[in-house]
Amino acid sequence: MEDLLRSIVLGIIQGLTEFLPVSSSGHLELAKFFLGDEQVGEGSLLMTVSLHAATALSTIVVFRKDIRALLTDLFQFKWNDGTRFALLVLISMIPAAFIGLLFEEQIAQLFTQKIRLVAFMLIITGFLLFLADRAKRTEQPVSFLSALWIGLAQAFAILPGISRSGATISTAVLLGIDREKAARFSFLMVVPLILGKMAKDILDGDLSQNNEQYLSLGIGFLAAFATGLIACLWMIRLVKSSKLRYFSIYCFIVAAAVLLYSFI
Questions:
Q1: What is the pLDDT of residue 35?
Q2: What is the pTM of this model?
Q3: Angle at Cα 106 formed by Cα 103 and Cα 111, nearest 5°?
Q4: For residues 103, 165, 151 and 84, what is the CA-based torsion angle, rounded to 10 degrees?
Q5: What is the largest CA-CA distance in the chain?
């Protein structure tokens, strides 16, 4: 029963914070610290792969029409909207892939319950959301240069406490990109990275040595998938209606509480 509850909690955290701009990695680090559990969020490679698969699937379900149109365009093997969008996604992936592969060991050192680091990064996330919320509305599409800048924001979000969706959507909006297009691009651009990370985890890890029960995996997957669907749809509406400031306030409050606790 304890394993099932833990799987549900992990699934809910992963599903919500993968899409809502509050940093899934930061929240898992805080959970590890305050629960005194080194294994939370990291305890099972198979569970990690399963949760990432769930959020990737929820993204695919929400944007199934966009993905179907994209694939249709791609298989025409000519320059069109689909091939342009695919190239934009490819450009956006370069910074995160480069940093992730070259600095994997250094990045891993950041995920050792450094709660003050998480707090300061949450403050940065809060400021980004606050600025994006106040940005002027425009209808510009994603350009090749803006895709690179958004990709750099995604690479920066490797740090625990920097929200990937928050950083990428805020950067896009501050660059003058239409809010709905910014949210769409932010969520679709991460799918190849999630799938690539899953493949790398499977190839690097010996999953046969994992004792995780299939029931726990299934429960975690369903929890992450269901909450991911809700969070993804909710986030799109929030970006369109300029309500990112509420998450900005949340990030500031959590950061202040963590810093107060750490110093006292």
A1: 66
A2: 0.84
A3: 120
A4: 140
A5: 62
* Residues across the chain: 264
Q: Tell me how far apart the alpha carbons of residues 23 and 13 are, in angstroms, rounded to a whole number.
A: 10
Tokens 């909690």 appear where?
Answer: 9
d(CA 93, CA 196): 11
Element (H, E) at 41: none
Give the C-alpha separation, 187 to 185, whole Å: 6
Residue 18, Cβ density class (10 Å: 0-12 exposed, 13-18 middle, ≥19 buried): buried
Phi and psi of 177, rounded to 5°? -80, 145
Look-up: residue for tokens 């107060």? 260
Q: How far is CA 226 from CA 23, 223, 229, 262, in A?
A: 18, 5, 5, 34
Residue 207's pLDDT is what? 53
AA identity, residue 146: S
Residues in the chain with pLDDT < 50? 40-43, 209
Helical H runs in 111-213?
115-134, 144-156, 164-174, 179-204
Sequence-distant (≥ 6) Cβ neighbours of residue 61 within 8 angstroms: 229
Chain mean position to CA 39:
20
**What local confidence, expressed as pLDDT, does residue 226 receive?**
94
Between the alpha carbon of residue 247 and those of residues 39, 57, 134, 169, 244, the distances in Å are 27, 24, 13, 13, 5
Contact at 8 Å (CB) between 148 and 95? yes
